[in-house]
Amino acid sequence: MASSPVSESLLSLEGVSRVYGEEVLVHALRDVWLDIRAGEFLSIVGPSGSGKSTMLGLLGVLDLPTSGSIRIQGAEVNTLPDAERSRLRGQAIGFVFQQFHLVPHLTALGNVETALLYRNLSRKERRRRSLEALEKVDLVHRHDHRPIQMSGGEQQRTAIARAIVTEPLVILADEPTGALDTQNAANVIEIFAGLRSPERAVCLVTHDVNVAAATERRISMLDGEIVADESQVPVR
Amino acid sequence: MRRFGELIGVAVAGLTARKIRTLLILLGPILGVAAIVAAIGINESSKGDLKAKLRELGTDLIVANAQDAIGGFGRDPRIPEEAAGRVARLPDVTSVTGTLQLSNIVTLPFAAAEDYYRAFPVPIIATHLNLPETMDVPLVSGRFLNEFDESSAARVAVIGRDLANEYGYIANEARSIQLNGVDYGIVGVLDYVLLEPSMDSAVFITFANAVEDWDEDDPDPTRLYIRAPTNTRYVAQEIPTVISLGGPDGANTKVPTDLLDAQSQVDENLNNLTKMMGGLALVVGGVGIANVMSISVIQRSSEIGIRRALGHSRGTIAFQFLIEALVIGVLGGILGAGVGAGVVWGVSEMRDYTMILSVSGLFRWASVSVVVAVVAGLYPSTKAARLEPLETLRLG
After folding, report:
1. In the A/B pair of chains, how many CB contacts fall below 8 A?
2. pTM given for the model
3. How far is CA B307 from CA A101, A117, A205, B268, in A?
4. How many CB atoms lie within 10 A of CB A210?
5. Nearest one of B208, B237, B229 to B100, comparing CA atoms
6. For chain A, which terminal residue's Cβ has fewer other Cβ atoms within 10 angstroms, N or C?
7. How far is CA B238 from CA A6, B135, B243, B252, in A?
8. Which residues of chain B neighbour A91 with C-beta distances below 8 Å?
9. How many angstroms from the chain centroid is the CA of residue A104?
10. Contact present, A6 and A22 (Cβ < 8 Å)
11. Which of B302, B307, B390 sits opposite A57 (nearest CB)?
């Protein structure tokens, strides 16, 4: 990933619609245009069923649009074959989920290393980079613990380390504080704010207005459409 | 190569994380391979001592029994001395011994057992002096009949080993047995004659005794034992002609080891049945693998989803599960072959078999286990690859 100007478009949706179902059609997303630029710390907010999770899936190229395009650094990716799309996803996007989704039989280090598999890295290099990522979330001392041996906050920080170890362009977080208490939630938001850099954007998808208030750009959704896209002074 | 190593690592980690389930999946291929290896091994090992015996005996002994070439003339068929001489002069023949079994003689170790030995008579065999050489059997004790016994018609006898055991004969003991009331001194005990077990309970005397004591006016043998180390089959075919030469005396021949040889051949039908049943066990094992792995795919859907989110393609996910199946097949094959070999060893020890186990057979059946496991893994692998990450990750 070459360093890019601050305003470079990292991830964009162009006229994206997503319709589910065959007999009964559900329009989860309708003609959405969105551009996420380098250096941004933004949130996508909306009530349940507003289409924000669908949008997250499409932004992360985990799903394909019914119509429209998904672009990573200007290149259309939704038309690529699965293997190529997966490779790009692994390179460009880091995911953090509400339920952490750590592999239960792997240690914290093993979970972080999973993100570096099949990249032609030596075991030693994978380990070094993973420990570095755990260091960033202050969890290096817990690297040999399994998820079940860690608190919710620690599991979420492990998930964050897994998301950043590949040095992605965009970090997409789905309700990252949803399963955490207030103190842990505040810590996690702090970590996300710190992850943003001139080359990288951080995007939180949430229904929690307090979380959204911590970001600098707020995109509001309702019924599958973007109803507001505004800059704000972050409150943390 | 590094990628393959990583896939193996992920597969092994997945399998070792769920030890009980992995053990249950492994049971199928282990039992299937073990069943086949054990059944075939036991079947072959049970014939192993026959094969060993065959090697020990050699396959070059021919037995020629007298028979009338033209039709009976009111006397028992015999092989005349000059005919036996002709057989002995054949180029491939190294040794010929004639024997004549005498009838209606009651053999008694002691008088009180007369009723028993009248009911179960002991065979009395008049023999040429080179019987131990021709039969390739040593004496357990004492000596065999010799030239002096023959020329003097001395009343001496050699007994078979079973008879010696039955009589409680102690080695080199000075003892006699009665043949129809006539005392014969026992001079030796012949060891077991594997190719002619009837000799083990027989009494051997000279042809001179047969003539002197038992009024055999025709001291010709009824049977010839012939060693022909080369061209055994051809010699056996030739002998009837050599004996008969167009005259009334004839003979039929057989090679006793032919029967042993046939017995030592592993029963192909039984083997095929065994293979079929073992194959069936492997297929059932394969179905088990497919079944348990399919459930595993559902249970691990979240893991699959996160791997997809981390950039692993559908192909990589499918390959990961296929490698898990491969590891199961390899482990199951190795363990199954080991268990099967252990069973063959145990049974061979218990039953005193000569253990026969084909190493190539072990590899072959272990490979079948690998193939079955990989084929069984195809469906769950495809299923894993087709999972939609969005559905498995249950976004908030």
Report:
1. 90
2. 0.68
3. 10, 10, 20, 51
4. 14
5. B208
6. C
7. 106, 21, 9, 10
8. 311
9. 21
10. no
11. B390
Spatial CA neighbour of B167 closest among B127, B219, B112 = B112
- Decide if B313 and A103 are in contact by the 8 Å CB cutoff: no
The CA distance from B239 to B227, in Å, is 12
Name beta bridge partners: B223: B65, B99
pLDDT in tens, A205-230: 998 888 999 999 999 999 999 999 98
- Cα-atom radius of gyration of chain B, to the nearest Å? 35
Element (H, E) at A109: helix A108-114
pLDDT grade for B180, boundaries at 50, 70 and 90: confident
**What does the alpha-carbon distance between residue A40 and residue A231 come to, in Å, rounded to a whole number?**
10
User: 């482990």: which residue's tokens?
Assistant: B331
Residues facing residue B158 across a β-bridge? B188, B204
Q: Tell me the β-bridge partners of B226.
A: B62, B96
**Three-state SS at A82:** helix
Letter string b/e over residues B243-279, b meaning 16 or more CB atoms within 10 A of that residue's CB: bbeeeebbbebebbbeebeeebebeeeeeeebbeebb
- Reported as half-sphere exposure (CB side, CA atoms, 13 A), residue B217 has a value of 2
Q: Which two tokens stand for residue B148?
A: 């002096």
Burial state string for B176-209 with b = 16 or more CB within 10 A and e = fewer than 16: ebbbeeeebebbbbbbebbbbeebbbbbbbbbbb
Tell me the three state secondary structure of residue B174.
coil
The interface pTM score, or ipTM, of the predicted complex is 0.90
| Distance in angstroms (rounded) separating the CA atoms of residues A220 and B1 | 47
Size of chain A in residues: 236
pLDDT tens column, B14-71? 889 888 889 988 988 998 899 889 988 888 888 777 777 776 676 788 999 988 755 5
What's the whole-number mean pLDDT along residues B366-394?
91
Residues of B with CB under 8 A from a CB of A: 2-3, 6-7, 10, 13-14, 16-18, 302-303, 305-316, 388-390, 393-396
Distance, CA of B343 to chain centre: 18
Residues facing residue A174 across a β-bridge: A205
Residue A117 is nearest to which of B6, B302, B394, comparing CB atoms? B6
Interchain pair B311, A91: CB under 8 A: yes
Cα–Cα distance for residue pair B28/B385, rounded to 1 Å:
25
Distance from CA of B297 to the nearest CA of A (A): 14
Distance CA A59, CA A197 (A): 19
CB within 8 A of B245, min separation 6: which ones?
B83, B86
User: How far is the alpha carbon of B312 from chain A, nearest alpha carbon, in Å?
Assistant: 6
| Count of CA atoms in the C-beta half-sphere (13 A) of B202 | 21
Rounded CA separation A85/A77 (Å): 6
Segments making up each domain of chain A, as ranges: 39-62+81-231
Q: Answer whether B133's CB lies under 8 Å from B61's CB.
A: no
